[in-house]
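Sample pair:
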Amino acid sequence: MIALFKMFGRQVETASLQVAEQQSIKVLFIGNSYTYFNDLPWLTQQLAESVKEAKTLKTEMVVVAGATLNSHWKRGEALKLIKAKHWDYVVLQEQSILPITNPQEMYEYASLFDAEIKRVNSQTVFYLTWARQNQSETQKILTDSYMSIAQKLNAKVAPVGIVWQNIREANSQLSLYTSDGSHPSPIGSYVAACVFYTTFYGNSPVGLSPRIYSSNSSTPKESNRIELESLSQTDAQMIQNLVDNILRKI
């Protein structure tokens, strides 16, 4: 009787885990500071929570400052984590200028990662990043590099850099960069989070919360959080509409 009870208990536990799996979207981010600045994965989770998505977003990241996909591959930590858990999506972010200076290297290691991602029945998402503030002419090269490898591998693209470019043209007063002209400000990361939200859920970002909090200040009471930015309704709608329009065309 005890043995039967234990067996039944394990079956219930397994069933509960399966239900939990079905009620969440699990994403692994592999990248560098463009991912961990302002904790982009966490920001994306907060946007999903703000509209009470039925499936919760669960994220982890393997990030190293300045890392390339080549260096991530050789370190081995990212590959181990890909194999260790079931992911719905694995996000690949190349070092910011490598798609411009050495797209062949990017393609080589993107392909190696993609093969392993497919092997565990997950889906690759390429994090198409942005041109540096004083080098806007390089956005086309970045875009072409990411779109080319994504098409070759039949992978998804989160076109963050394309959206950034459109926002800069629509409202140059919105500060997407930090003072170094490379890394994302809280607003820049918010834009990226809107793109990833739409990429993962397939839903329009219109109506998402315009408030941006620090990931180190998350508490049960919203009033206790540290707010990094609170976009005006006009700016939030402009960002969200641009994300919606651009992702419908990708």
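The CA atoms of residues 28 and 160 lie 17 Å apart.
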